[in-house]
Amino acid sequence: MEANGSVEPARGDTAFTSSIAELYDRILVPMIFEPYAVELAGRVAALAPLEVLEIAAGTGAVTRELARALPARTALVATDLNPAMLDRAALRLEPPKPPGGPDAAGEIVRWYTREDHDLYDVCADDHCQRYQGITKILSAVALEAVASTHGSFLVHDGAICDARFYKACGGLTEEFQNAWEDVKVPYLTSLADAPVSHPPIQNERGAEHWIRSNPEAYCNTTDPKILRQILPSFDLETTDFFRWKVEYSREELEKIIREKSGFDFGTLMDLVPLVRGPSGRMVKLKVVGSKRTIVVGKDLEIRRWLSPSHLYSSAFVVDTQRDNGGTPLRFLLSGAGWGHGVGLCQIGAAVMAIRGFGADQIVRHYFRGAEVQKLY
After folding, report:
1. How far apart are the C-alpha atoms of 163 and 351, rounded to whole Å?
2. CA-closest candidate to residue 178, choices 157, 201, 150, 155
3. Residue 328 pairs with which residues in a beta bridge?
């Protein structure tokens, strides 16, 4: 049984009937399994797995908690020897929330805030910077850093800063309003993350040139020694974050978009960038199909629609291979950076530290006009 409710029963024991499965779920699950399901799901989610296989799933007590707790990128498959148990589990799985429809202009533009959780304060997904829990603190140095900066805050104009961060900007950082609310935040502006200047992206031609280039930038590193100091073990397999490529057949991408957006576009005909920020990240993307056309935004929603998990970033250009009649055969997405690009670039900041920049210099570089102040 997959997390979306589809059932794949294993062959074998068929002795249980639907009435026994119902009694099992109504009586034994609350008594024995439910108290442990939330804790077990939390422990699994903290490992940030890419795939989870649950065997002997029963009526899905653990499956339901896993579906809520696991990152969107994680593929969850649950099975059991008994079809009646699986049928009961499928009935209990929460159906996907129906997507909000396009507005009058044919647009779905949304962003994710700290309040976008049903059951948890933080999640293990990109939305919450993939929080892994206290069991994933990998070094005592992190605790020492917290203790040594106790009472210190990043402040701008008398207020504590909303200090956003992500993995790698790709050479240019992004402005706050292009990823979240339409509000300009003075210390979350676009800048060149490099010892040299890079002009902001102003049009589609500039975006294509920038994304297909390999510019000098602090986060432009493939040094395994540096990356081992920066990335946790479950991210070390990702080495092409500065410039990356993802390729889909048309049918593959149609299926992903249909599942992630909740809309059937029919034959996918085109992906058209409409609005970009100064880092090249898209604010709005037009998805053109034979059945419907919708404009989607902002950054994270675009990344969510175009990947089984999330694209590294929305700073990408599209190359489309078409047949003689103009119907797409394959889509190649070539992109820059890893994450929304607003605020501090984690890999860039780490490289700056290795090059001798102090902590105050690094935060002032990424949060322009802000200062570190001791408030207590």
Report:
1. 19
2. 201
3. 322
Reduced to 3 states (helix: H, G, I; strand: E, B; else coil), residue 242 is: coil
DSSP string, 47-91: T--SEEEE-S-TTSHHHHHHHHHS-TT-EEEE--S-HHHHHHHHH
Q: What is the pLDDT of residues 284-322, one digit of tens each?
A: 999 999 999 999 999 999 999 999 888 999 999 999 999
Closest CA to 254 of 330, 140, 324: 330
Query: Are the beta carbons of 312 and 300 closer than 8 angstroms?
Result: no
pLDDT in tens, 325-365: 999 999 999 999 999 999 999 999 999 999 999 999 999 99
CATH number for the segment(s) 18-92: 3.40.50.150
Structure tokens at 70: 């696991």
According to DSSP, the residues that pair with 317 across neighbouring strands are 334
Nearest by Cα to 88 from 183, 172, 22 = 22
Are 242 and 220 spatial neighbours (Cβ–Cβ below 8 Å)? yes
Q: Please state, in angstroms and as integers, the Cα–Cα distance from residue 268 to each residue in 153, 301, 329, 331, following that order.
A: 48, 18, 10, 10
Burial class (CB in 10 A: 0-12, 13-18, 19+), 144: exposed
State mean pLDDT over 125-147. Answer: 67
Residue-wise pLDDT for 258-270, tens only, equals 999 999 999 999 9
pLDDT for residue 68 is more than 90: no
Read off the tokens for 159.
Answer: 């207020």
| Assessment of whether the complete model's pTM goes beyond 0.90 | no
**Residue 198 three-state SS:** coil
According to DSSP, the residues that pair with 336 across neighbouring strands are: 243
Query: Tell me: the pLDDT tens digits for 196-253?
Result: 999 999 999 999 999 999 999 999 998 877 777 766 554 555 568 899 999 999 999 9
Strands (DSSP E) found in the chain? 51-54, 75-78, 107-109, 152-156, 159-160, 165-166, 243-249, 268-276, 282-289, 293-297, 316-322, 328-336, 344-345, 371-374
Closest to 247 measured CA to CA, from 315, 308, 319: 319
